[in-house]
Automatic annotation (TrEMBL):
One Pfam family linked to the record: PX
Organism: Tachuris rubrigastra
Compositional bias of kind Basic and acidic residues: 154-167
Classification via CDD domains: PX_SNX10
Domain PX per the UniProt entry, residue ranges: 7-124
Family: Belongs to the sorting nexin family.
Protein name from the UniProt record: SNX10 protein
């Protein structure tokens, strides 16, 4: 029997504008992972990240893998316009190409930060703390916890509408910020995005 070819599919899709406060907005993107690689704790996952977090990830990976020439992120242009679909899609494609190259590199795949970035919604501060052993939860715990949170949404959706339940105090700081929007439910059930791209 031929061994299965390992694959990692990375999609960066569904850019959304999020308001930080009355003055500031930013765009975040959904990162969808589907893989059979042994390197990944979860075979499918879905998280949302913003450009600034990609910049953080690249810096951390670079400082860990000094000899590797990391792929570039799409350039941070002063003319980037969130309301211009062409700008947003160009950046989305650049972010996707960046991640596609990263996950092909076995050395980079051994960096826990990459896995936390791709498979949890922890903030950079929390990822850093987790990797350096300052949290009660391990990297694997964080990824499993996020998986179970994601799976719980559809059932608890009704509950959440009635009243917010203060579930876990441990990751309160990170989880309270990311009110799971309904997209987490349909996560991974969307039609293949290949058809959307012209």
């Amino acid at each position: 029997i031929m061994p299965l070819q390992e694959f990692v599919t990375v999609l960066v899709r569904d850019p959304r504008t999020q308001k930080e406060d009355s003055w500031h907005s930013y765009i975040d993107y959904e990162i969808f992972i589907h893989t059979n690689s042994m390197c990944f704790t979860r075979k499918t996952s879905c998280v949302r990240r913003r450009f600034r977090e990609f910049v953080w990830l690249r810096q951390r990976l670079q400082s860990n893998a000094v000899l590797i020439q990391l792929p570039e992120l799409p350039s941070k242009t002063p003319f980037f316009n969130m309301n211009n679909p062409h700008h947003v899609d160009h950046r989305r494609q650049g972010l996707q190409e960046f991640l596609e190259k990263i996950v092909q590199d076995t050395l980079l795949l051994s960096d826990s930060r990459l896995h936390l970035f791709l498979q949890t919604q922890l903030s950079p501060e929390d990822m850093e703390a987790c990797v350096s052993g300052q949290t009660k939860y391990s990297v694997a715990d964080a990824i499993h916890e996020f998986a179970s949170l994601n799976r719980r949404f559809p059932i608890e959706d009704e509950e959440r509408k009635k009243g917010k339940n203060a579930a876990d105090s441990d990751s309160e700081s990170s989880s309270s910020r990311l009110q799971p929007s309904d997209d987490s439910i349909s996560c991974g059930c969307k039609a293949s995005p290949a058809s959307e791209e012209s």
